[in-house]
């Protein structure tokens, strides 16, 4: 991306959504490769009918396609909002592919991928039976630029010609955004500032859902958005704390091969304690037998119980989402300006103890690459500082001596005070113990939630040595590497996620070249090669990728978990 104030906003929001998706609430915005395998739930063929319950900790707030920040259309949102493209609703790696949704294909680019054209399928209608047109999709995108409807994926501000200056349809005097053309009711054309081979991935986000202009009532639209998907909203209490969805009678299965839409109703309740959610799913009494969660993992103690109960174990789904937890360095702070000091820490790290600190190998997998170990991201195995599973203290001491610290050194590690979290005190203490063996004394500085986030994301306040995490908005190396390592993404006066302040012309240039590719299979290994090149500079030290373990009720069937989201796909679930 070009470095603008809008681009920095993209990065900030991407980080935020990554955290949200880590708990599964929406999409991308904090697994190893292989298919997500959830078992089959209750035995038998799935059938239509029944009521599905969703038990969540976090509320599905801002239920407006302009305001939602989703990947692949999201989970609950994807039941109501169809988009030009969507994620392939399959298990594991097959689920990382982008496929057509409202459109007949994933998009037709011009020669340099600066113009993308889509054609709508025949027979598309809203919940009231009226036809969906490309003018509605254009309007849906335009309203996402309005300040009062902010919160959604803001890539379009950076990618669309004129997007950076556009302020939405409520202020444009009816002019609209000229870079989106709708020559007829079934054709829509996007004009971009620069080549973007991954535009089909962006077109999965809910900003691409159609919104009929006549039904738009601004900030109140979220109370009853007009459905283009298999379900419509019949109740939205306390800004998404309680959502009730019923069948959209005008949804056509013939135009939607991705969503199964088995249940008659879906009841989403949030604000529940995570331990209570797991207890209810485990017991599966009454309506809870037909219940799932999209945001609550099993913890170590709960996994131990599952391990001794075969019937319970058969109801646990395992998922992988592209996320990496890592050590970040600020090279503007001594002694981290010295590459040998950073390399020494990379050798000293004990990844086994770090993994154990977040619950063990069932909940995390050690990482030596920044890219998650999935093919879609371009994962290329490498370890620039091979230290084995428990670290190499001798090699670390050797590098410290070369750096001028033969007698060791003392550093401060900043972490979150959120206990049990991937950036929390348990991981920090594990690193403290490992580095001590190499002669590095680590003092721990714990910060509370907002204070921690504000500190580590500020170029002015960023500490020298801290814990961080990153997840991609879609399964590709681009949204994973560019925000963290593209020098043009450095933000001096706002949220900055290029924590190592890396501004390498060759890295920046390669990002641009890969972004031109519309053959994503060809692009993937180039992202992997770039990851290796960056990794050798030791501006970060990857620690682990999370693994998600989640229970479903005993009557839940047809559990599908893709490597795009890492969580159960509600659009596939049956309860009969």
Automatic annotation (TrEMBL):
Membrane-spanning residues: none
Signal peptide: none
Domain Solute-binding protein family: from-to ranges: 97-488
Tree of life domain: Bacteria
Pfam families for the chain: SBP_bac_5
Protein's name in the database: ABC transporter substrate-binding protein
Organism: Streptomyces mauvecolor
């Amino acid at each position: 991306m070009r470095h603008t104030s809008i681009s920095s906003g993209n990065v900030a929001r991407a980080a935020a959504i990554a955290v949200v998706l880590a708990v599964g609430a929406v999409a991308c915005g904090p697994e190893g490769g292989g298919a997500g395998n959830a078992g089959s739930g209750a035995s038998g063929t799935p059938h239509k009918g029944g009521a599905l319950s969703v038990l969540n900790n976090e509320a599905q707030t801002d239920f407006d396609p302009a305001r939602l920040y989703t990947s692949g259309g999201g989970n609950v949102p994807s039941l109501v909002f169809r988009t030009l493209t969507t994620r392939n609703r399959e298990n594991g790696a097959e689920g990382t592919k982008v496929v057509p949704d409202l459109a007949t294909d994933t998009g037709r680019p011009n020669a340099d991928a600066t113009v993308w054209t889509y054609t709508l399928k025949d027979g598309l209608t809203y919940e009231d039976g009226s036809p969906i047109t490309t003018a509605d999709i254009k309007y849906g995108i335009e309203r996402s630029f309005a300040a009062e409807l902010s919160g959604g994926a803001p890539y379009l501000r950076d990618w669309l010609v004129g997007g950076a200056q556009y302020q939405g349809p409520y202020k444009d005097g009816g002019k609209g955004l000229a870079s989106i053309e709708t020559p007829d009711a079934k054709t829509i054309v996007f004009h971009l500032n620069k080549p973007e081979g991954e535009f089909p991935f962006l077109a999965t986000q809910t900003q691409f859902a159609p919104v009929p202009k006549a039904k738009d009532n601004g900030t109140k639209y979220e109370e009853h958005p007009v459905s283009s998907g298999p379900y419509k909203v019949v109740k939205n209490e306390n800004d998404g704390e309680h959502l009730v969805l019923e069948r959209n009678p005008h949804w056509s299965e013939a135009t939607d091969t991705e969503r199964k839409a088995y249940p008659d109703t879906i009841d989403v309740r949030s604000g529940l304690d995570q331990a209570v959610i797991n207890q209810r799913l485990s017991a599966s009494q009454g309506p809870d037998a037909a219940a799932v969660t999209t945001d609550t993992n099993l913890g170590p103690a709960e996994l131990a119980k599952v391990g001794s109960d075969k019937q319970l174990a058969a109801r646990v789904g395992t998922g992988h989402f592209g996320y990496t937890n890592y050590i970040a360095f600020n090279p503007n702070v001594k002694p981290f300006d010295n590459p040998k000091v950073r390399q020494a820490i990379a050798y000293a790290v004990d990844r086994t103890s770090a993994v154990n600190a977040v619950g063990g190998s069932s909940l995390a997998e050690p990482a030596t690459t920044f890219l998650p170990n999935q093919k879609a991201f371009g994962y290329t195995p490498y370890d620039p500082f091979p230290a084995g599973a428990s670290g190499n203290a001798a090699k670390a001491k050797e590098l410290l001596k070369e750096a001028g610290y033969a007698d060791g050194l003392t550093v401060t590690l900043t972490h979150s005070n959120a206990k049990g979290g991937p950036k929390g005190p348990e991981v920090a203490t594990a690193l403290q113990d490992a580095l001590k063996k190499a002669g590095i004394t680590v003092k721990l500085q714990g910060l509370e939630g907002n204070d921690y986030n504000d500190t580590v994301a500020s170029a002015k306040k960023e500490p020298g040595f801290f814990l961080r995490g990153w997840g991609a908005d879609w399964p590709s190396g681009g949204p994973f590497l560019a925000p963290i390592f593209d020098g043009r993404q450095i933000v001096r006066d706002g949220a900055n996620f290029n924590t190592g302040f890396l501004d390498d012309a060759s890295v920046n240039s390669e990002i641009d070249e890969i972004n031109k590719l519309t053959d994503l299979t060809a692009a993937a290994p180039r992202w992997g090669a770039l990851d290796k090149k960056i990794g050798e500079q030791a501006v970060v030290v990857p620690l682990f990728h999370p693994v998600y373990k989640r229970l479903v009720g005993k009557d839940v069937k047809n559990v599908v978990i893709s490597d795009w989201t890492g969580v159960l796909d509600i659009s596939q679930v049956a309860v009969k």
